[in-house]
Amino acid sequence: MANHMCLYGILLFTMTESVLSLPLRASLSDPRGPHFTSIKGPSKIKAGVTTEFVCSAMCTPECSYTWQVSGQEAQGDTLTVTVSGQHQSLELVCTAVNPTNNDSQSTDKTVQVDNQVMVNPTTGADPQEGHAFMLACKGSGPGITTVWYKDNEPIAADQRIWLTENHAMLNFSSLLPPDGGYYECVVTNSTIRVTSRGYQLSFGTIAVSLLGPDTVEAGVEHTFTCQADCTLACSITWSFPHGFPQGSFSFRGDTVRWTPATPGLVQVFQCSAQNSLAQRTAQATKRVTVSAPPTTPAPPLPPTPSGSVVERPSLALVSMVCLQLLFALSA
């Protein structure tokens, strides 16, 4: 008979313990395993939709199974999960234990969470104090109950902050400093409840510039720096739209070091400064041309000593020498 366990928080679990009879040939005095522990289930799940995962191992006698998910523990070989959608991925760890010799083996699985409910600004303009601003809950609509939260607290509407029909949009007539915070919407219908991807409302700017030469010499190391000017917390990422640089290449943090190898090549560098929660990004691009190393000039002739005269043999002398050589060869 199945046992059920519910763990509340980000996840809802239902655990089912499987009891299998031992094979006739198995002996409790001869325990084997666990071996080949694995988790069966999808690699991507939808927020609010219940999904099942099964842990199995080759084990004699039958192993017991323990799951670790988001800091919570549950028993049984079958795990039923319903994610709220607040996180982009879910880490599953299953440990199989042989009850006779206590040998164990663990395996893990990373599951991506597909959440179509999110909070976004309705325009591309950055929030500014004293200006109107609007947030939309994508996924809200008729027949769906929508509740807005700021920093995990329900939002109370007033004369300055109000909600549209169906609570699909949150409006600010004039932003004030206390309006800064993390905004989420929770949508519920008769079957599911999903928490949106959130939006960090922050007052500030993000800017970036890419420092380095526009023309570089093949065979010489050059340095490029992504310089971010952020009044918000921001992180730096590099990308190379036309492929990784050819030659010796490394990057760490805001700095790229490159020794190009091919003259005539045009390399494109791109760096970005971003705050993903505030959905703010700034980007800089640089096109760099690789030139050939300079050619080495021929060494100069030794200088002629001052006052000296360079004598050249006369035509008559040259002719006489040639005739003597001819006679000598014919003799």
From TrEMBL:
Keyword terms, alphabetized: Disulfide bond, Glycoprotein, Immunoglobulin domain, Signal
Signal peptide feature range: 1-21
Domain of life, per lineage: Eukaryota
SUPFAM superfamilies according to UniProt: Immunoglobulin
CDD domains registered for this protein in UniProt: Ig (cd00096)
Location of the region described as Disordered in the Swiss-Prot/TrEMBL record: 284-308
Domain Ig-like: 34-112, 115-202
Pro residues bias (residue ranges): 294-305
Pfam families, A to Z: Ig_2
InterPro entries in the record: Ig-like_dom, Ig-like_dom_sf, Ig-like_fold, IgSF_CEA-related
Protein name: Hemicentin-2-like isoform X2
Natural source organism: Clupea harengus
Top-level taxonomy: Eukaryota, Metazoa, Chordata, Craniata, Vertebrata
